[in-house]
Structures are given as C-alpha cells and as structure tokens.
Amino acid sequence: MAAGTTGLPYLTSRHPYPSDGRPAGRWRAVLRRSAPLLPAVAVIALLAVPSVSAADASGGSGNAADVASALLVLYCLVRVLRERARPLTRTAALVLGLPVLGVTVAAITSHDPASSLPGVARYLQIFVLVPAALLLLVRDRADFRLVAGSVVALALAQGSVGVVQYLTGTGASYMGEDIRAVGTFGPTDVMGMATVVSYGLVIAVGFALADEWNAPRGQRAVALVCAGLLCVPLALSFSRGAWIATAVALVLQLALSGVRRAAGIMLAAGALGVVLVGGLGVGSHMITERLDSITRVADAPDQSVTDRYTMWAAATDMWREQPVTGVGLKGFPAHRDSHASLALSSGSDTEGAGRIFQRQPLLSPHNMYLLVLSEQGLLGLVALASSWAALLVCALRRLPGARRSRRGSDCALAAAGLLIWQLVDFTYADIGGPSTVLTAVVLGLAAWWALDRRANGGAAPA
Q1: Which of 138, 149, 221, 453 would bridge with 143, disulfide CB 3.0–4.6 Å?
Q2: Counting Cβ atoms within 10 Å, is residue 313 exposed (0-12), middle (13-18) or buried (19+)?
Q3: Which residue range is the domain that position 231 belongs to?
Q4: Helical H segments across 109-218, by residue range
C-alpha cells in the first residue's frame, strides 16, 4: 500500500466479489460487497428504536446506537491491525486529530478530572473515532450513497412517526396541544427528529441536484420525492434552529449546483410552500407564528429564547474566568448558576409523546461553539473549529472537479450541504441526546468526500 493513502487494501476493489450472472448471484455479490458497511448501517438503523427512558432521550446514558458505534470503531480497528497498514493520510490524521488536543488539555486541567472522563469519551466518539471509522470503511461513491441513503430512510421513518403524532395529537406538548412531531425520540429530545429529518432532506436535495453519468437509475426522481416528503415533518417539528440551518444549507447547495438551476428550483419550492401552507393549511397558523417568532427574538423573546440568551451569557463569563482551557469538560452545569442571571428559569417543561409532565434541567448553553469555549477554552474551540473548517474547505475544493466530470457531484453536494447544515445548527444546538451519534456518521461521510483521494476519482491504493 502506498504511503500516505487513505483506505484499507481489502476495500480497494469496486467489485471485489464476482457474480455468476444469475439474479441470486448478483444479490449475493451485492450483499458480500456491502458487508463492511453493515456496522455503519446498524448505527443508523438503531436510531429508529424508541428510547426506553427519559435519561436515554436526554443523553443521560448511552443507547443502542451508541453501543453500535463503539462496535463500528472496534470493527474498523481490527481490520486496520489485521492489514498492518497505515490507513490515514497525514492530512486526514491532522484534520480528524485536531479535536483531541483541546479535549485532552481540558480534561487534564479540569478541577474534577474524574467527572470529565465521560466528556472525553463523548467528544472522541462524535468528532474523531466514528468519523475516522467511516472514512476508512467507505470505499467509493457507491458506498457513500448506501450509507447516505440509510440516513434518508431513517429520516423518512422518523418523519412518518412525527406526522402521525401531529395528525393524531400524540406528539410532544406545544402551546398546550400534543402536536409537536418528535418521532421516537420523545419530548425530552425535541431536536432529535428535526435533526434526522434535516440530514435526510439535505442528502436528498444533494442527490436530486446532481447530474451523474454513473448514478443509479432513477436516483434523481426518488431523491426529489424524498425531499418533498421530508419537508412536512420538518415543518411540524416547530424547530426554529433546524429550519434556519436547513434553509441556509439548501440555498447554498442550490447555488453550488448552478445559478440557473437554483433560480428555477427556488421558484418551484416557493410555489409548493404556498400550496402546502396557504392552500392546504398544513399547520399554517402555528407554523406562521413560529416563523414570526424568529424575528421577535430580540424585541419580545419567549422564555425559551430568554433562557438561551442567559445561558450564552453564562458560557461567555465562564470563558472569561478560564480563557485558555475553560472550566473543564462537563463543567458547564456545575458553574452555570454562579454565572447565570436571575432571568434563567429552573428548566423547560416537557410532556406528551407517551411521557408524563416533567421539568428538564438546562445543562448546556444550546450553542456548540459557546459550550466548547466555556468548557475547553479558546484552545479547544480553535482546535475543534479548525477541524470543521478544514473539512468544509476540502469538500468545497473538490466540488468544481466533480461537477465538470459529472462523477461524484451528488456526493459532493450532499457532503457540503451536511457540513454547512451542521455548522449553522451548532449556533442553536450542541451535542446531546440519541441523535448525536448520527452527527458522527454525517461527519464521517463528509470526511470521506473531503479527505479520501478516491472520492473525486483519484486512484485507489495499490
């Protein structure tokens, strides 16, 4: 294997298992070829399993998908050791390894290193280990489409549950009615379904915008249908942060696919929105009110916005107290009350979707950048943000070549859209809850497109 390549020797052939030409033989060949990706698909599939407790839903304990992600990393490690190869390029190792610096220093300098250990494991899982495993296991664009398609399938499943919750009044409580679509994540993780559906929508739009020579037949039509279907549960999630992040990601995806195409699609999308909301009245009153509340966050914010502003201010004060290394991983809850003003409420009310009423404590600033700044200091934020910025730059640099060759532009648009969505959403959310492990999978897909030479038609390792 050539030095500095990304990938494993056993994953280099596009069609490593020959078929005998019969249908059964072709299916066996497909299944055998897809076998290395089954651990990744299992992580995604297990996110459809309902959380069994409020602690699971709020991220208080690991769930089945987290266990599967650990097995995914272990599986990849065994394959690397068995092949005795250096799997990552220097660039890939640097980009994915940057978060380790801030996390390690923050854990060492923490006032309570023992309580920081779960935070170390979580950060390494989400931003280093699982993305690196996906980078190694995905061999080519067909593998990318398989994993990304699994995310879309999960989004459709969760979105379907969410739509049923809205129509039957069995969702999470919203404005006194149990109508908020939350999927199987429950009322304590109201962002879970919105996040999954947003990922699926961004991937579907990326696949629909591409004009590939070698894309599967009917991919664009299926992607368009999926994108249209996913718009409904996203609207019914009433998640302002997910709406904003999705709007930004889709607009930039359209712009990256070509200005003329972008103009036509935006007109069609606007007409569809008028029909759904204005003509059919799909959640029109509450959706309109929720949209209006985005423009009122400064003048007349509701309690949730007030709490968020208060926690943002508290996170900033923590950083000023420990500017270089922060207050330590998992340290925000312990330092919150000593830095927050009296405007902060004791918690948020949650009920519905099969759960009784309970107060959910506010344990994070709901802003990933401020969470990292407060707990890991400027060193941690620079390290983590530099890793994300490098992924985005590398992904965007490969996009023009993919569009010119018409090979891989669907993967390019999907990867770029996912990165943009995540970076925007992190201004309104942070890691936590069962859906967080899907963030690691998404970062792994983006890392493969940005860092693997074969993603854009480069030669596979020898």
Answers
A1: 138
A2: middle
A3: 36-300+396-456
A4: 113-124, 130-137, 141-168, 190-209
Residue 103 lies in a domain: yes
Total domains present in the chain: 1
Distance between the two ends of the chain, CA-based, in angstroms? 5
- DSSP assignment, residue 185? G
- Cβ neighbors of 333 (< 8 A, separation 6 or more) are 361, 363, 364
> 96-154 pLDDT, tens per residue?
999 999 999 998 888 888 888 888 999 999 999 999 999 999 988 889 999 999 999 99
Give me the half-sphere count of Cα atoms (radius 13 Å) on the Cβ side of residue 413.
29
Closest CA to 448 of 151, 161, 92: 92
pTM for the whole thing? 0.87
Residues listed for the chain:
462
Q: Is the CA virtual torsion 445, 55, 367, 325 positive or negative? A: negative
Asked, for residue 158, whether it belongs to a domain, the answer is: yes
**What is the token pair recorded at 18?**
């020959």
